[in-house]
Amino acid sequence: MSNDILREVIQRREVYTPHWPTEEFIVPILRSKLEEILDNYYSPEKLNALDVGCGGQPLRIKLEALGYKYTGFDITQNITNTVDFIGAIDRDLPQEVLNLDKFDLIVCTEVLEHVANWEQAFFNLSKLTSPNGIIIITCPHFLQLHEEPHDYWRPTLYAIDYYARKNGLSVIYQEKAGDAWDVLGTLLASCWTFPASINFVDRLFTKVVSIIRAGMFKIIKSRFLQKKVKLMGPLYLLNIAILKK
After folding, report:
1. SS3 letters for 38-92?
2. What tens digit of pLDDT does each residue of 101-155 get?
3. What is the tens place of the pLDDT at every residue in 72-110?
4. What's the Cα-to-Cα distance from 111 to each of 10, 108, 114, rounded to whole Å?
5. Surface-to-core class of residue 195, CB atoms within 10 Å of its CB (0-12 exposed, 13-18 middle, 19+ buried)
6. Tell me, what's the pLDDT at 7?
7. Percent of the chain scored above 70 by pLDDT?
8. Euclidean distance between CA atoms 118 and 113, whole angstroms
9. For the chain, what are the domain ranges?
10. pLDDT of amino acid 46
């Protein structure tokens, strides 16, 4: 049996609320973007939805409110025992999943960074999607390691486009979400300070740097600076892509 299938059951996000300082920027962006996309791409004729890597199922309420028939698929069962099918998206799919009708909507959010075999994953996503169905993908571009050791990639939108086209899918929307301020805030939240030695000067400088770091994080989190200054740069937090079969 694959080591992936033996992953422990952990408490996964049930709502898009930051749990840690490192999530203070990416999670609100993720929440607002997904709500906007689901509202904009909702169609009353497309009501069969699959949540790949559903975890605590933070999108379930939204999808069911829109009228979708919700199906959860993940590599482990969650603590509320509401995952419908257990399996890995980058391995042979369970026969019971293949026996289902094709899905008009597939959401795969914050999952692909934990998937080792993208070739098989995109093949399976395409296989499960109905003609003219859509797949919503999000995955981080700048974020600390998490759920180790099952954290493999920080992809670009070019990688998503490459594997999509290779498996009969077209990209109909893509976005680099989260600006340089969000990246800087996430970086500051991911750092901590230690003195280089027990020397008083080193300890003093460490204290000063620690105070500056904490202060900058607090200011960036407040969004005050963002209203005054645009911080430009090539880095961003989050890949968002919508694929069509």
Report:
1. HHHCCCCCCCEEEEECCCCCCCHHHHHHCCCEEEEEECCCCCCCCCCEECCCCCC
2. 999 999 999 999 999 999 999 999 999 999 999 999 999 999 999 999 999 999 9
3. 999 999 999 999 999 999 999 999 999 999 999 999 999
4. 15, 6, 6
5. middle
6. 55
7. 96
8. 9
9. 21-179+233-244, 181-228
10. 72
21-179+233-244 — its CATH code? 3.40.50.150
Number of other CB atoms surrounding residue 20 within 10 Å? 11
DSSP-H helix ranges across 134-179: 157-166
**Closest listed residue to residue 4, CA positions, set 118, 113, 115, 110:** 115
Print burial letters for 226-239: b (CB count within 10 Å at least 16), e (below 16). beeeeeeeeebbbb
Contact 50, 125 (CB under 8 A): no
How far from the centroid of its chain's Cα atoms is residue 150's Cα?
14
Using CA atoms, how far apart are residues 87 and 92, in angstroms rounded to an integer?
A: 8
State how far the Cα of 124 lies from the Cα of 216, in Å rounded to an integer. Answer: 44
Task: Give the separation between CA 188 and CA 164, rounded to whole angstroms.
Answer: 34
